């Protein structure tokens, strides 16, 4: 790319009607394909696998290690009335914004320095918001977009995908967890027990791929804290569950209800595919999350050339101001309805469920263990 090709990224999703252009943008298509490539590269690969790291990868990890040392150096402020958000985080973020250009210059090849105008905003946005002192899956997405842009620039290629996930992204998780615990950062847009996790999402995608084919660990295994603790080092999924166990109290099915439900899935391949559907539905298609995304030349808001002809364009749907905003969002494809779709067990009376014999995962485990009277049978999915 030429020098003039790079532009300061801007926010383009300003209302719910911008969601449709986002869904059909080059950025959406390329980013999702990027996540699938990362995911496929770590199928059956343990976090502790012997991976070749070049000097660039080592420099990146050392740079992130330097950020983690900043956290220890910043003293906390007194907050007697606040449950979340120690204002000392703002000192970390101020230092990050000030030094980010130089940090990235030191690790990136000189021929990519012209792209810093686009790269720096994604990088600084990856560690949380200094005004709200919060962190969530949108910030995590910014780091993955940052890596995506580097790969698009040729800094990394597909041969580096395993290292990007299990070394660089893994180190990024360590830094963010350190930030979360020290500064008591608030979960950004948390849905409480209805969310898979207060802060992260991608570790559950990549980590479930790592466990595909495992003969000793099945999805139900992560309900046992001793098993999780003993195997957290081999999978980002189990590592994330282990962090939850260390930071939350009470019964697992109460504080992490979605993860408890998902543990009923019979194998990791199904969990992995369900995680992608959930990521699209709960992150990439949620206005409160994607309204903060920024777009430039590398992560482009331009319309993709590969349009799904069968997809319905929301611009052709008349607006009904009486409907809540969620009804004005792009309709999900049948395969993306909710998080996970499962066949209703024989124990449930499905005679009145018409041809759509799938359910949401809310009461999945109960369906597998109890007989439900007809009036408690879960409602069917709407016909596509």
Automatic annotation (TrEMBL):
Region Disordered: list its residue ranges. 361-384
Please provide the record's keywords in A-Z order: Cytoplasm, Isomerase, Rotamase
| One Pfam family per UniProt | PTPA
Just give the chief location class: cytoplasm
Residue stretches of biased makeup (Basic and acidic residues): 362-377
Its Enzyme Commission number(s) read 5.2.1.8
A Gene Ontology annotation in the biological process aspect, one of them, is: mitotic spindle organization
**Is Cytoplasm among the key words of this record?**
yes
For the keyword Cytoplasm, the answer is: yes
Reaction(s) this enzyme catalyzes, per UniProt: [protein]-peptidylproline (omega=180) = [protein]-peptidylproline (omega=0)
Gene Ontology MF terms in the entry: peptidyl-prolyl cis-trans isomerase activity; protein tyrosine phosphatase activator activity
Q: Which CDD domains match?
A: PTPA
**Mind telling me which InterPro entries this protein's record contains?**
Phstyr_phstse_ac, PTPA_C_lid, PTPA_sf
- Gene Ontology, cellular component aspect: cytoplasm; nucleus; protein phosphatase type 2A complex
Localization in the cell? Cytoplasm
Q: State what this protein does.
A: PPIases accelerate the folding of proteins. It catalyzes the cis-trans isomerization of proline imidic peptide bonds in oligopeptides.
Protein family (similarity comment): Belongs to the PTPA-type PPIase family.
Q: What is this protein called?
A: Serine/threonine-protein phosphatase 2A activator
Q: Which organism is it from?
A: Caenorhabditis remanei
């Amino acid at each position: 790319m030429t020098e003039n090709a790079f532009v300061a990224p801007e926010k383009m999703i300003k209302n719910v009607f911008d969601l449709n252009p986002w869904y059909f943008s080059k950025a959406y298509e390329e980013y999702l394909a990027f996540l699938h490539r990362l995911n496929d590269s770590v199928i059956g690969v343990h976090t502790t696998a012997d991976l070749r790291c070049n000097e660039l990868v080592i420099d990146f990890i050392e740079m992130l290690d330097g950020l983690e040392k900043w956290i220890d150096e910043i003293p906390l402020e007194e907050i007697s009335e606040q449950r979340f958000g120690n204002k000392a985080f703002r000192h970390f973020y101020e230092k990050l914004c000030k030094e980010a250009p130089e940090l990235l210059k030191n690790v990136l090849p000189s021929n990519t320095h012209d792209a810093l105008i686009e790269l720096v905003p994604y990088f600084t946005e990856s560690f949380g918001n200094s005004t709200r002192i919060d962190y969530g899956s949108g910030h995590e997405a910014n780091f993955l977009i940052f890596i995506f842009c580097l790969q698009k620039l040729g800094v990394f290629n597909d041969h580096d995908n395993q290292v990007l996930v299990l070394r660089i992204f893994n180190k990024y998780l360590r830094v963010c967890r350190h930030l979360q615990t020290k500064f008591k950062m608030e979960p950004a847009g948390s849905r409480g027990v209805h969310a898979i996790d207060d802060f992260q999402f991608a570790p559950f995608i990549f980590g479930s791929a790592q466990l595909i084919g495992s003969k000793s660990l099945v999805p139900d295994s992560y309900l046992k804290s001793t098993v999780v603790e003993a195997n957290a080092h081999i999978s980002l999924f189990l590592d994330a569950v282990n962090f939850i166990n260390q930071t939350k109290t009470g019964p697992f099915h109460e504080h992490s209800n979605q993860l408890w439900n998902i543990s009923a899935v019979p194998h990791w391949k199904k969990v992995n595919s369900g995680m992608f559907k959930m990521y699209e539905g709960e992150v990439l298609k949620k206005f409160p999350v994607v309204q903060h995304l920024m777009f430039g030349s590398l992560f482009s808001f331009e319309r993709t050339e590969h349009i799904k002809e069968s997809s319905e364009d929301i611009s052709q749907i008349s607006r009904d101001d009486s409907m809540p905003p969620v009804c004005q969002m792009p309709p999900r494809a049948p395969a993306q309805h909710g998080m996970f779709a499962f066949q209703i067990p024989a124990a449930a009376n499905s005679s009145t469920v018409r041809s759509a014999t799938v359910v949401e995962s809310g009461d999945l485990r109960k369906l597998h263990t109890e007989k439900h009277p007809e009036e408690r049978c879960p409602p069917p999915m709407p016909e596509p």
